[in-house]
Amino acid sequence: MRDPEILQRVKDALARISEVAPGHAVELRIPPYSAIQCVEGPKHTRGTPPNVVEMNADVLFSLLAGTGDWQALISTGEIHASGERADLSALFTQLAKTK
Predict the structure, then answer these.
(1) Spatial distance between the Cα atoms of 67 and 59, rounded to a whole number of angstroms
(2) What is the value of pTM for the model shown?
(3) Residue ranges per domain, the chain?
(4) Dist. CA 43–CA 92, nearest whole Å
(5) Gap between the Cα atoms of 91 and 37, Å rounded
(6) CA distances (Å), 74 to each of 25, 33, 80, 81, 91, in order?
(7) Tens-of-pLDDT digits for all 99 residues of the chain?
(8) In sequence order, what are the residues at sequence separation of 6 or more whose Cβ sits closer than 8 angstroms to the Cβ of residue 83?
(9) Which CATH architecture has domain 4-97?
(10) Measured between alpha carbons, how far is residue 36 from residues 48, 53, 72, 91, 95 in Å?
């Protein structure tokens, strides 16, 4: 079951990400809460997207707060990222600095 408070925090965070990195090149998934397409580049329209990043809500919040380390979270499997545009470390660093 989805926690409504976490759902709202995720949606707010994803809206902020969409503003800072608009586009359709990467699908950012925060199951079971929401997903968006972001980052400039080729638009994906059918099938499995070539650039996917998936993490849980706690990991998303830690990255936005600047307390999570992208590479460490990748290496522990807490972030799953595939595709040539799936490295969002710079984006999260930028967002953490402007919180």
Answers:
(1) 9
(2) 0.92
(3) 4-97
(4) 21
(5) 14
(6) 20, 20, 6, 8, 15
(7) 789 999 999 999 999 999 999 999 999 999 999 999 999 987 766 667 789 999 999 999 999 999 999 999 999 999 999 999 999 999 999 999 886
(8) 26, 49, 50, 51, 52
(9) 2-Layer Sandwich (3.30)
(10) 14, 10, 23, 15, 16
